[in-house]
Amino acid sequence: MGIQERKERQLAEREQLFLDAAREQILQDGLLGLQMAKVARACDYATGTLYQHFASKEDLLVAICGDLVEKRVEIFNRLPRWKAPSRERILGIAVGDIIFAHHYPEHFKLAQFVFTEVVWQAASPKRRSQLLETSRPMGEAVRQIIDDAVAAGDLDTHGRPVFEMTLGQWTMTLGMHNLVHAEGVLELYNLHDPYRILLRQLNALLNGLGWQPLMDPFDEAALEQLVTRIQREVFADLCDSTTDNESSGCP
């Protein structure tokens, strides 16, 4: 390993150390409790060293979000490779996202905050670009499933843009994540097991798009069977079969 390569590796390791410490601080103190000096101190570095990596607290927040997105991308990338009908794979995207939300509950709170104007515009163009580029493979995974669906005759786009076919699933899933993390909102309307509600709603949406094979969104037994199969065949390492679904992180 050359001197330059070694230096770059050390910088990357130090940056990851800062990201992990910042994420831990957010978990303990909340987003508004994040302090640059405290992050640096937790890593035994001077605050100035932290600023060599992140120009501002906003840059640090965007970078944490990007670090978590890389883990989310890994989950999305499992579904195009799964040997199952396209409709099951597209619903599997939602199931994987629910599992991700259980393992990294801070992500969607953070993402909602990061994309507010006050944070996003204050972050550097470089960090914003990095986050968007890191997110790109998720869209590519979804597009591959849609292309497979069209090729198999499972879905007719009627000449509409490909991503329009899953825009509804994207917004519904993101909206449910936001509602789940808005403490007290769902309880106000006596709505329990929100992610199972989401999966029923998504099945109704896929029916409306004519995505084959159609599925009764209120057939709880069929939905349970499908979700269990997705857990077992795609996300077995992320779902502890010895515990109930809620504690294992599975819907």
What does this 3D model show about the protein?
With 251 residues, the protein is mainly alpha-helical. The protein contains 14 helices and no strands. It folds into two domains: 1-53, Orthogonal Bundle (Arc Repressor Mutant, subunit A); 61-238, Tetracycline Repressor, domain 2. Helices cover 71% and strands 0% of the residues.
**Principal-axis shape:** globular
Strand content of the residues, in percent? Answer: under 5%
Which value, in Å, is the CA radius of gyration? 20 Å
The CATH homology group name of the largest domain: Tetracycline Repressor, domain 2
Tell me the layout of helices and strands.
Blueprint: H1 3-29, H2 36-42, H3 47-53, H4 57-76, H5 78-81, H6 86-103, H7 106-114, H8 117-120, H9 125-152, H10 164-180, H11 185-188, H12 194-208, H13 220-234, H14 245-248
Helix pairs in contact: 1-2, 1-4, 2-3, 4-6, 4-7, 4-9, 6-9, 6-12, 6-13, 10-12
Distinctive features:
Arc Repressor Mutant, subunit A, single chain, globular, 0% strand, Tetracycline Repressor, domain 2, 251 residues, 2 domains
Task: Write a concise synopsis of the structure shown.
The chain has 251 residues and is mainly α. The chain has helices at 3-29, 36-42, 47-53, 57-76, 78-81, 86-103, 106-114, 117-120, 125-152, 164-180, 185-188, 194-208, 220-234, 245-248. It folds into two domains: 1-53, Arc Repressor Mutant, subunit A, CATH 1.10.10; 61-238, Tetracycline Repressor, domain 2 (Orthogonal Bundle).
